[in-house]
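Hey L., structure's done. Input below.
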Amino acid sequence: MKAKNIKDNQSEFLPFGKVRMGYKIIQISAGKGPLECAFVVAKVLKIFLKELINNKIEYTILHKENGLENGTVQSVSIQIKGNNLADFLKNWVGTIQWVGTSTFRKFHKRKNWFVGCFEVDEIPAFARIKDKEIQFQAIRSSGAGGQHVNKVSSAIRAKHLKTGLQVLVMDSRSQHQNKKLAIKRLQEKLEEFTVNQAKEQLKNQWENHQTLERGNPVRVFKGTDFKAVKKEKSFKSKRNQLKNNLRKQLE
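Output:
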């Protein structure tokens, strides 16, 4: 899937109830956890991506740090794009728990393993390039093109002033057409540059989340097939507690 501009905007309400598409970057990380946690990240990633598809949310994997064993992932950063992202992420951002026996240490007594799902801090991004942000220079074309090719300054060099990125376009004998192509290619180059910047930033970020809140996981899975454990509704627990208290009073 082709990467889009990286933004981290909240969805905004528009007239007539329409919602503007938003962008987020999510990181699923084992942090400093043992190999089993990297195993959990790999399994959780598959479920996360499946739910993105089911909710018609586009995604791009920006960076993935593989674990020490095959089939394990130490950390993965994903750019997501879609509507109502905040509602979707309510069931994901936080601590994720897996209840199961280690697949690497069969006799290990530990049964509970924890990984983190985080929303990554905003990464600076560039919007659609405006003409005032570009410096144009008309130069003479070179190469094949007939006897007039070097007599007319039809080629265009375009430079993005904020980043210094440049493109040279001489596809057409028309300076106007070359200018249009230069703007388009410069925009594409800027998008690629922004994505690469994000990847570099994310490479050093997967270790940032070392402390996990283990007492209140947002998602719980169990078994090697990672079946989701449904949380018992709080009002149901309170109702059962009230019934038990009333029963004891009547005895």
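Helices lie at 35-54, 85-89, 175-203, 234-250. DSSP finds four helices and ten strands in the chain.

-- N.
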